[in-house]
Amino acid sequence: MNFDSTPVLPHGFRCASRNVGLKPVAKDLALFVSDVDCAAAVLFTRNQFPGAPVLLGRETIKGGVLRAVIVNSKVSNVATGEAGLQFARRMAAGAAAEVGTDARKVLVSSTGVIGVALPIEKIEAGMRGMAADLQADPMPGAHGIMTTDTHPKVLSVRVGQATITWIAKGAGMIEPNMATMLAYIFTDATFDAPTLDGMLRRAADVSFNMLSIDTDTSTSDTCALLANGMAGPTDPASFEAALVAGCIRMAEIIARDGEGAKHLIKVRARGAKSVGEARTIAKSVVNSPLVKTMVAGADPNVGRLLMAIGKCFDVTIDRSKTDAWINGHQVVAGGVRGAFDDDVVRKALGNEVVTIEVALGVGTGDATAFGCDLTQGYIDENAAYYSS
Amino acid sequence: MNFDSTPVLPHGFRCASRNVGLKPVAKDLALFVSDVDCAAAVLFTRNQFPGAPVLLGRETIKGGVLRAVIVNSKVSNVATGEAGLQFARRMAAGAAAEVGTDARKVLVSSTGVIGVALPIEKIEAGMRGMAADLQADPMPGAHGIMTTDTHPKVLSVRVGQATITWIAKGAGMIEPNMATMLAYIFTDATFDAPTLDGMLRRAADVSFNMLSIDTDTSTSDTCALLANGMAGPTDPASFEAALVAGCIRMAEIIARDGEGAKHLIKVRARGAKSVGEARTIAKSVVNSPLVKTMVAGADPNVGRLLMAIGKCFDVTIDRSKTDAWINGHQVVAGGVRGAFDDDVVRKALGNEVVTIEVALGVGTGDATAFGCDLTQGYIDENAAYYSS
After folding, report:
1. Which of A180, A222, A280, A322 is labelled catalytic?
2. What would the pLDDT profile of B235-249 be if each residue is shown by its tens digit?
3. CATH number at residue A41
4. Measured CA angle at B55 (ends B90, A272), to 5 deg
5. Domain presence at residue B379
6. Chain B contact for A341, CB < 8 A?
7. Are B301 and A216 a contacting pair at CB < 8 A?
8. Same domain, A187 and A71
């Protein structure tokens, strides 16, 4: 898939961002708007303490139509009770007034610290006049949703006459289940909401739902797909292939920028008894703290791969058929440590992208998980996130 | 439970340890012997890549009789194939010859790096004459089984005329399932093997099986209970109560000494729909990297507790009934952040022991999990474990 070297927004989409005083200086409010109504699908976190914006969003998306997305960072509006829900509604109403639409067509997201009251007055005041800032460049929006991300995350690609653009944020508290932290996907292709929903679920299933920074599932995860139809009909198969490719690429970008991460770790499990078992094994390896620290230290302690496979108690393992490779170098053969050169594997583990492949030899199940290494940076970010 | 201020071994048990050249200087081989045959029960790891000593131990314990335990550290003899199993048998035979028993009455354990050949000649040579070193003091044995532990781990307690003594090692790769890393429990009480097995399973279920340093389940976990009967019959209820209390205390000691840990974290979930759901929630909270770093940094970011509860997708949660406390200070009330003083909670999080209590309000399920905070020390230990 050839992503644009300079990402763009599809026809009819514009965005803006501002500092409205939630953070000292950085942008903390982003607005995304389509010139016309969009068919839309949204996936939300499965966490049982979803934020107020998620509770509201589940109502909003029932109509299958969105016109705008408003996102603040710094405060997630989670565990804030009935007042939090009121504030989320006020945020939608403010954005709707600003862009001239109905609040029921505005998706609200908030990301940041949990359990702190949303400074709604600052957001309402800061939002006023924001429509005048809207531009066709995706970067202001991508900057506006960042929290501990080290860079804005944008991709775009062409499919026939249409464009698909991904704008996301990641970094920590990421083991999504039905979506990543925050990912907005805009397209000018024409599809109805149920079709978008099916495509988005299938794409998330092999990308954001296979992404884990730290096994912690955020209370705010939201992944939205908005199609405004301005480029007309697009071949569904080509569109879905591009959607899947972009979601996987964005999952890799988020994993690589995991808090404190120095490496992207991709773990493919193949030859498993089922796709479900392949997913379980790939996730277990990518989430193992001892595998993550092995990569961080480029330490060829490859027995840990077997530990992380073997701790999946309920999957089918035939020890004598289990093989594993690190960046193409075989390190496990028939369930036993292979005869490899430590220095070669140490060097492979030093690559920015470390691909671990596990072959189970018991079926055809195949899945890939995306994660990162575990370093002091993660602890630094998270030992004082609230206080700083 | 009043544990002895200076731990002792029960009547008829002795131990010794030596450096046999697996490590540069520290003790790396430990031998535990009873003067007479013991009724015994052993729990092993559920990891699907168990070490050779675990495979052998499952055979050995079928007889329900043990006379000795031989343990080496530094190399775990895991993922070593048929040769590894032969080496484990040779280790049992060597110990049996040394103490004058049958190899089928010797439990073998190995702990350390995975996937490296066991230096069996060094062990066989180093074991010779070790019977002469045996003494009634538990400390040589406790020192002999340490790997990254910062201190030897021994407890003893009196029950009527009998004594129970726990000798364990912990530190990393610890989320046992049926046992902790290595824990040997010796008693001079009289019980048959099936009785010991039932007692040990029940005790492990609320202690070692609720312990997690890092979610990684070792391939070598072994927990053995040996009863030589030299103190005669003991009241079973009193014995089991003491056994449970000691296993819980040892789980706490191991958690507190988790690699890099500065805090013991205890998480009690009560009012859950079932004990199983309480266990799931307590484990989720104690294992959450974001909860662990919150404790490491004494950062009162208590919304993370709700995140860690809520990511248990399949348990019954009534958000409005969910409360939580940190060392007695209420931080969540009715699913919403409580009105607490940040500084008070920050101070509570600074305690060496941080007890988190979660009340679900939907049933009577109650469980407690044991863990530790996540610091740079964990990463330092594990980013170069193989190479150093």
Report:
1. A180
2. 999 999 999 998 998
3. 3.60.70.12
4. 135
5. no
6. no
7. no
8. yes
